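Hi,

I'm pasting everything inline rather than attaching a file, because the server keeps stripping attachments. The sequence lines come first, and each chain or strand is labelled.
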Amino acid sequence: MTKAGIYIHIPFCKTKCMYCDFYSITDREKDADGFVSALCNEISHSSLDEYPWIFDTLFIGGGTPSLLNGNQLEFILTTLSKKVSFSCLIEKTIEINPGEASLEKLTDFYSLGINRVSMGVQSLDKELLAFLTRSHSVKKVFETFDHIRTAGFENINCDIIYGIPGQTLDIWKRDMNRIIKLNPGHISAYSLTVEKGTELFQMVNSNEVTMPSNSESADWFTLTRSFLSNHQYIPYEISNFSKPEKECRHNLHYWNIDPYIGFGPSAHSFDGNRRWNNTRSLDQYMKKIDEKLSPISKSEKLTLIQKVNEKIGFGLRLNAGINLDKFSKIHKNQFNQNVKLHQNKWNDYIKRDRKKIKLRERGFPFADAIAVDLMLQ
Ligand SMILES: C[S@@+](CC[C@H](N)C(=O)[O-])C[C@H]1O[C@@H](n2cnc3c(N)ncnc32)[C@H](O)[C@@H]1O
Ligand code: SF4
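And the predicted assembly:
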């Protein structure tokens, strides 16, 4: 049976980071109870119990979900448990920020059945944390990591970022070294992206800061992959590294184009044919739910070609590559023609057998460009 994921978006943050384009708002924690009640309303009135899939992952992301207290999280989980079987939900993740999840809170989350924690470390350099306008110190990262383990969590992810203006390859290597000493089961290492509408975007546009060049970015990328691979972190996706059996099952749903259903403001959903997302405004969201109206602000049905192209785009980012058996005969032929057409350009970067096509190690820095060339028209 098809496996699927559930995503819940918690929009509150203590401060807004200068690079972050995720929907999050500050100074609204007083609305947390009202929000949780609207969220539970959305879940209760959803079709979650009618889909013909097994929901095996839950990801509570944000924003900063660790700003919720144990009671609020319990309310959300109890509401969910009336719609889906909790015994099937084998991975239940919550995102937390360093210094914003006490041992007591983490212990509550663990006792409620959350079994995976994802902590946004970003950097272990004081100046870089200040540049990124992070609200926590380096010390808080280690203190919070300690609390996560003490609370009982064995499945832990750390998010780290490279390509930050002012960062050197040596600082990055030192940070990765300190992270692997903590021995998390999973590391997400992202290249800093400049998102429209962020403070970073304005700084780059006004030449206040300069981002790494393409060739510098490729160096960061190559160093990250070889360093983490050499330390037993398997690069199973372009930015994601895990110890055996510790891959993020929830994110694999996105990358494998499986269905997922999202709740909360800005949350996205995909049912295999249609993609939709909720309004990106807490007030609008709460108002719609209060008026018993749908909080969905956009919905589109994907064409067959769009679906195949998603499989190509995401599949090339995975170590496992693209499973051609999932394509219809006609799409497989078109795809093979594209591969032939760009053979001279990408032959050394791609490897293939009868069933699969994947990138060679040297192909990963060019994954997006290769995907564009191989996508169907
Ligand atoms: C939406 S955040 C939530 C996590 C949590 N609130 C925190 O900041 O620690 C999820 C992750 O996305 C990554 N992220 C957000 N904006 C990014 C950007 N512009 N470039 C690279 N990574 C980014 C960060 O690594 C962050 O930990
Ligand atoms: S990076 Fe995390 S803490 Fe910072 S604004 Fe985004 S969601 Fe909030």
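The chain has a mean pLDDT of 97.

If the labels don't parse on your end, tell me and I'll reformat.
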